[in-house]
């Protein structure tokens, strides 16, 4: 019952009352240390009161709990060294990491905890000592891997076409080799080494990604932008395309260019994931993800309807014309593709002025240009501009969350020998088996003096404002009298508050 009450207090809107009641209940707890403590009992979701405060973004309760867990090591003048208990914060030995819970929650207030002590210092320590070097090495290794795969695709086994053309529009001159013909020369053996590296890399990607999907859940794993959800979809699809290409190569099935092309596009697009390791580029990946999976996905439904309607109209108009003179709409799939290019203004309106154009083509193209180029494209630009404005206001906060998510991911993937535990064991200071983070705090006395001066100025302004408000309530005459009173009041207020503020400064000096 006591543990349930503690969880309820974390969710209370009245933070001061919740902190007092929390301390009162713990004062009656007999097992204040060890596994029987009320603070260490999780709820049905596996969250202790401390983790629940982080997930809910309750910064007041989080700071209150951290103040209870800190130990003052020594103090000398303005310098103070504090040991913070990071037992539940550190993700090194936690199945359900506190840092991962914060970056995966949908509440924006929870990300503010990443800027509080000691979470900020712990993340900075992990990222600077291990996270950034390993992440940069992983980015370099992935780029080299993609270069190897690209070279294998560029020099894939092809042979000249021997069959006759079936159509005047057939432009194929090379075809895919059979499996027996693909690995004969020395160059083919070099390509085989690159292909084996590519396939092994795809298998490793699936082996690393699938356990996280089963542990977190597909909806949460792919749906969180900060955790890199869309990039996980991209890299898993890329690995699947590599395996499909391998099967088609081994069975000598024609058409391997389709999965190979998809794999090239997806693999190189995944390079943007590594931009999160840099503060200048990290927020832009968030913007791209939100624009693609937010604005662009909604816009594509409208675009598909417009393209489908006008492509059908263009195909019907040119259905009776000679395709050799106007080949952009010679069949229905080509009409869809040409209309898509016209929608994005990639090409100009296809027209051969050496022949007579149908009259309806001019009418339909006029309506299409107004709707597509002038209306819908500008609508898309406005939607993306609004998304950019919203993300730009919280880009620093989002980048910190990206760093935390990347650090936790690397800490889980790498062996323990390459990533030792951060902090200091409490046995060195006689504090048990808990782990602590040493933080040095410097108290600036001049800063506190200036804060007192500022509060003095604010207090005088508030007093004068209240007196002026009473005078305004008494003197309710004409509008002209009100303006004169307000003008004289503002002058006297500024003069009085300034005079009293300077008197405070002189006395303290």
From TrEMBL:
GO terms for cellular component: plasma membrane. It is found in: Membrane. Keywords: ANK repeat, Membrane, Metal-binding, Phosphoprotein, Repeat, Transmembrane, Transmembrane helix. The keyword Zinc-finger does not apply. GO terms for biological process: calcium ion import across plasma membrane. GO terms for molecular function: calcium channel activity; metal ion binding. It comes from the Eukaryota. The chain crosses the membrane at residues 134-158, 192-210, 231-251, 257-275, 296-318, 359-381. It is a multi-pass membrane protein. Residues 135-394 form the Ion transport domain. Its main location: membrane. This is TRPV5 protein.
């Amino acid at each position: 019952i006591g543990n349930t009450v503690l969880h309820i207090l974390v969710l209370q809107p009245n933070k001061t009352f919740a902190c007092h009641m929390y301390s009162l209940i713990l004062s009656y707890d007999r097992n204040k240390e060890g596994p029987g403590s009320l603070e260490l009992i999780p709820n049905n979701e596996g969250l202790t009161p401390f983790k629940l405060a982080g997930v809910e973004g309750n910064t007041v309760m989080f700071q209150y709990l951290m103040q209870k867990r800190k130990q003052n090591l020594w103090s000398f003048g303005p310098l103070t060294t504090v040991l913070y208990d990071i037992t539940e914060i550190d993700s090194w030995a936690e199945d359900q990491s506190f840092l991962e819970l914060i970056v995966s929650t949908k509440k924006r207030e929870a990300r503010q905890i990443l800027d509080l002590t000691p979470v900020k210092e712990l993340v900075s320590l992990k990222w600077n000592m291990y996270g950034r070097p390993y992440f940069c090495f992983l980015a370099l290794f992935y780029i080299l891997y993609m270069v190897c795969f690209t070279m294998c695709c560029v020099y894939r086994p092809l042979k000249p076409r021997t069959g006759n053309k079936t159509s005047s529009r057939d432009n194929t001159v090379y075809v895919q080799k059979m499996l027996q013909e693909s690995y004969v020369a020395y160059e083919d053996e070099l390509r085989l080494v690159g292909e084996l590296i590519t396939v092994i890399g795809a298998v490793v990607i699936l082996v690393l990604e699938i356990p996280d999907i089963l542990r977190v859940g597909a909806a949460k794993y792919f749906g969180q932008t900060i955790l890199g959800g869309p990039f996980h979809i991209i890299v898993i699809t890329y690995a699947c395309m590599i395996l499909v290409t391998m099967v088609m190569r081994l069975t000598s099935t024609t058409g391997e260019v389709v999965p190979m092309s998809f794999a090239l596009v997806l693999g190189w697009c995944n390079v943007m994931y590594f931009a999160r390791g840099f503060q200048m580029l990290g927020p832009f990946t968030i913007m791209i993800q939100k624009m693609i999976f937010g604005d662009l996905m909604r816009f594509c439904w409208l675009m598909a309807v417009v393209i489908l309607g006008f492509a059908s109209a263009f195909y019907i108009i040119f259905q009776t014309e000679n395709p050799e003179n106007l080949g952009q709409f010679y069949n229905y799939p080509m009409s869809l593709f040409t209309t898509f290019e016209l929608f994005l203004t990639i090409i100009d309106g296809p027209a051969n002025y050496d022949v007579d154009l149908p009259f309806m083509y001019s009418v339909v193209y006029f309506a299409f240009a107004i709707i597509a180029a002038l209306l819908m494209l500008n609508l898309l630009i406005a939607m993306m501009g609004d998304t950019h404005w919203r993300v730009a206001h919280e880009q620093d906060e989002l980048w910190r969350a990206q760093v935390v998510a990347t650090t936790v991911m690397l800490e889980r993937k790498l062996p323990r020998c390459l990533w030792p535990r951060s902090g200091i064991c409490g046995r060195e200071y006689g504090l048990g088996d808990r782990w602590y983070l040493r933080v040095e705090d410097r108290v600036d006395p001049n800063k506190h003096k200036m804060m007192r001066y500022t509060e003095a100025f604010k207090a005088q302004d508030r007093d004068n404002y209240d007196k002026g408000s009473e005078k305004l309530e008494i003197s309710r005459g004409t509008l002209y009298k009100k303006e004169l009173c307000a003008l004289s009041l503002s002058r006297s207020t500024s003069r009085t508050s300034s005079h009293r503020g300077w008197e405070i400064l002189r006395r303290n000096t």
